[in-house]
Amino acid sequence: MGNSSFLHFFCFCFLLVSTAFCISHPHLHGVHPLDEKYYRSEVIKCKDGSKSFSRDRLNDNFCDCTDGTDEPGTSACPAGKFYCQNLGSKPQFIFSSRVNDLFCDCCDGSDEYDGSIHCPNTCVMGGNVEYRSVNYNAEGTDLVSSGVNKAKTGVKLEESVYNLTALKVAVILQLVLVILGVILWCLRRNRSRRRRYH
C-alpha cells in the first residue's frame, strides 16, 4: 500500500468513525445531560404522565406534552425549558420561548442553533462556578447552602463528569487532526525529496 493509498484509507476510516459516533450519539438540543437516557427509548412518556410520544416527534416543533417534555430544544411549548450547557461557565435553564428568537441567552450560544444569528461563545473558562449571596443565621451557618448543597452535589458531580467527557472528545478530535496534518506534511516532504533525487 503506497503512501497516498494509506492516506486515503486513513481519511476514510476517520470519516467513518466520526459519522458512526454522530449517528449513535445524536445531539439533542436543550436536553440536560441527566435526561439524555430518558430520551433514548423509541416511545417516551411525558414527564407529567399525561401521554406518550414516539422519538421521531422529539423536537419536531409541535407541542405534544403540556409540560414541554417533547420539545426541549424548540419554542413550541409554552411550559418548555431549554438547557444551556455553557461549558466552562454556569449551566442554566431558560424558557423555551427564547430559543431561536434572534437573541443570545446562553453564553455558549446554543439557544440560537438555527443559524439565523451568530452567537459568540462568551462563557468564561474555569469551571462551573456559581456566584450567589449567602445568608447566615445567628450561629453563622449558611442557611441557603446547608440543605440545598446536599441535594445539588450529585447533580453537579454528574454535570462535571459530562463536561469532562465532552472536553475529552474535543481533545481527541483535535489530536487526530494534528496527527493527520503531520502525516500529510511528512508525505509532501518525502515527495519533494524524491523529486530532487530523480
Helices and strands, in N-to-C order?
A: HEEEEH
Strands, count = 4
Distance between the termini: 22 Å
Radius of gyration: 23 Å
Structural class: mainly alpha
* Sheet with the most strands: spatial strand order: 1-2
Number of domains: 1
- Proportion in β-strands: 5-15%
Mean pLDDT: 75
| SS element count, helices | 2
The stretches of 5 or more residues where confidence is low (pLDDT under 50) are: 17-26, 126-153
Shape: elongated
Quick one: biggest sheet?
2 strands, antiparallel
Helical amount: 25-40%
Secondary structure layout:
Layout (H helix, E strand, L loop, with lengths): L2 H22 L18 E3 L6 E3 L26 E4 L7 E4 L47 H55 L1
Antiparallel strand pairs: 1-2, 3-4
Helix pairs in contact: 1-2
Keywords: Membrane, Signal, Transmembrane, Transmembrane helix
Protein name: Glucosidase 2 subunit beta
Pfam family, one: PRKCSH-like
